[in-house]
Specification:
- The chain has three helices and three strands, in the order αβββαα.
- Helix 2 runs antiparallel to helix 3.
- The N and C termini lie far apart (41 Å).
Length: 87
């Protein structure tokens, strides 16, 4: 089983306890209507992911950090719901 730090590193994140998971719509041309999952840390800034990437990350980290995986799953569901609503 991969270590917690190895999984986080593979997604460009440091091995630390505090992550902020949020959804946001990118301001880039051609991505209108899409919502991204943003994983932020104090020391490493933010990592922006399409919901498919965030779901893979949640699946990979679930065995070593179920709380983080649940937070990612919630972010993925919000991104999908917002994209469907196209506000």
């Amino acid at each position: 089983m991969p270590a917690h730090s190895e999984i986080l590193k593979s997604y460009g994140l440091p091995d630390q306890e505090t992550f902020e998971i949020r959804t946001e719509r990118p301001d880039f041309e051609g991505l209108e209507g899409l919502w991204m999952v943003v994983v932020s840390t104090r020391s490493a800034g933010a990592r922006v992911m399409f919901h498919e990437d965030a779901k893979r990350f949640a699946d990979a980290v679930r065995i070593v950090d179920p709380t983080l995986a649940d937070q990612l799953d919630e972010g993925v569901e919000r991104a999908k719901r917002y994209a469907r609503n196209k506000d």
